[in-house]
Amino acid sequence: MGLKALSVGVVLLILYGYARRREPRVHIPVMLSAFVIDMSIVAYIEGSREAVRQAMGPTSPLMKVHLACSILTLALYLVQIGSGILKARGVAVPFHRQTGLAFLLFRVGNLVTSFLIPTHNLSYRLVDLGVTIRPPRGIEQAP
C-alpha cells in the first residue's frame, strides 16, 4: 500500500501545483518535485516487478487502460516540462494549459486504475523467477 499512498501524494502535489499555476516560483518547483517522485516510483516498480516485461505479456483490459494512462502521463510530463521551460523563457506556449489538463486527467486515471488492479496480477510466477520445484526423494516423477 506504500506505493499507492505515495502516488496519492503525487496527485495531491500536482493538484497543488495546478492551483498555484499563476505563481511560477511555486508552480515550477512543485511540478518538478512531482515529476521526480513519479519517476522514482516508476523506477522502483520496474526494478522490483519488471513491469515492462509483465506488460508485454497477456494482461487484463483494466491493466491495458492502466498502462495507457501511465504511458500518456509520462509523455505528457515531458511535453509539460518542455513547454514550461519555453514559457519560463518568455515564449508563448498556447497549449501548455490544455496539455496540462490532459496530463492531470491521465495521471488521475493512472491512480484510479492502480487501486482497481488486483495485486495478485503483479506477483511473479515461480517459473519466471527460475525456481524449480522437485518432488521429495523417493517419489517418482510422472514421465
Describe the protein in words.
This protein is an all-alpha fold and 143 residues long. It has one domain. It has 5 helices and no strands. The longest helix is centred in the middle third of the chain and has 28 residues. The protein is elongated. The chain starts with a helix and ends in a 27-residue tail after the last helix. About 6% of the residues have low confidence.
Q: What about the largest sheet? A: none
The count of strands amounts to 0
DSSP helical segment count: 5
Give the helices and strands as they follow along the chain.
Answer: HHHHH
Instruction: Indicate the low-confidence ranges by residue numbers.
Output: 121-128
What's the topology here?
Blueprint: H1 2-19, H2 24-49, H3 51-56, H4 61-88, H5 96-116
Helix pairs in contact: 1-2, 1-5, 2-4, 4-5
Structural key phrases:
143 residues, 69% helix, 5 helices, mainly alpha
Structure at a glance:
The protein has 143 residues and is mainly alpha-helical.
